[in-house]
Amino acid sequence: MRPVKTNKISQVEAGPKILAYTGPTVTLEEMDDAIAKGAVQSL
Questions:
Q1: For residues 27, 30, 31 and 32, what is the CA-based torsion angle, rounded to 10 degrees?
Q2: CA distance linking residue 34 with residue 32, whole number of Å
Q3: Are 18 and 7 in contact (CB under 8 A)?
């Protein structure tokens, strides 16, 4: 057996670091707009 490696970062604000995301920061408004656009396109 080997110990499981854990990521010591666990705060929600550190999400991009946890996921190793290196892209640009996106605001909640931009995310909401993208979700709404996707919803319209899926109809």
A1: 120
A2: 5
A3: yes
Residue 21: partners with Cβ closer than 8 Å, 6 or more residues away: 15
pLDDT in tens, 14-31: 666 666 777 888 899 999
Q: How far apart are CA 4 and CA 32, in angstroms?
A: 36
Q: What is the mean pLDDT of residues 1-6?
A: 71
Q: What's at 4, amino acid-wise?
A: V
Q: Which residues contact 40 (CB under 8 A, 6 or more apart)?
A: none
Name the DSSP class of 43: -
Q: Euclidean distance between the first and final Cα of the chain, in Å?
A: 50
